[in-house]
Amino acid sequence: MPLLSAFAPASWTRTALTLLLAYAAARLCAWLGTPIPWMIGPLLATALVSVLGAPTESWAPLRNAGQWVIGAALGLYFTPEVGALVASLWWAIALGVAWALLLGLGFAAWLRRLHAAHLGLPPERLIATTYFAGAIGGASEMTLLAERQGARTDLVAAAHTLRVLLVTVTIPFALQAAGVHGIDVLPPAIRVVQIDGLALLGLLTLAGALAMQWLGRANPWFMGALVTTMAITLAGVQLSALPGSFTDLAQLFIGVSLGVRFTPAFMHTAPRWLGSVAVATFAMMGLCAGFGWVMARLTGLHPVTMLLGTSPGGIAEMAITAKVLQLGVPVVTAFQVCRLVAVLILAEPVYRWRYR
Q1: Every domain of the chain and the residues it spans
Q2: What pTM did the predictor assign?
Q3: Rounded to 5 degrees, what angle do the CA atoms 84, 218, 286 make?
């Protein structure tokens, strides 16, 4: 029955109208000259009308297609030269993972201290809720882990959704205001669209995404396409670049998938909780800016590249920011991917070690 309902006329109508709104918002942001217009425009417009109660909808296959395209586009940056650079930064990536874990523990401790009195949760449930809400990982994955530990999943999902929104919107606007862009010295492996190569790249990355999905990995459409394209590019094979329209639409689909999460019910989810998450998110962005500056001094890379690599945003959103503004795409992607994988693997063991 759920599968049939996904193809109901009402669902198609909501999806189509949401996409039309998102497209209009993207065109408006492009005309206004905002950063990352094809993601930020749809995200903000969809979030606004969703909060006001409009029946918006994101179709999962379109979101998957968006992640598939972005994963493939990022993988094209990993030439053998870039691969050697990233491999030489293994120690910095390890520090970035440790930083993310410590930042999440600090965020969780602050949430627990602030909300222990009025949430009225048993101690164990309070700890699980604040821990998984504070972890710097993917929203869906952290919510699933929180559910297994008996946490309040609505608070966990709300914390991650709001954090990603604030980081996705704030950092690009701040970088544009500062005039920071175009510092990439290592372009994609190929910049010419070749139809035969594009078709082969599509088939190979589709196979990679489906394999990741079959294995039950997180973000399978993004990670499968990214890993497959990285392997091809690192081997020195140049199949094709991706058309700009593909990446624009991919950003639009991802923006819509984020925006529809902001329903009226979301805004009524413990307003004090959401306020504290917002304050903590801005504080974490400031701390990550400082940590990124230190890492830039240690690695010799640009501070903005390290800021994006260590920022508490979502992997796709930060990688898109780096790609559109040309801010060290391979390094940002490597840092964000390694952090995502490490947090997914270590979140539960650290929770049991720290609190059990």
Answers
A1: 59-255+265-355
A2: 0.82
A3: 70
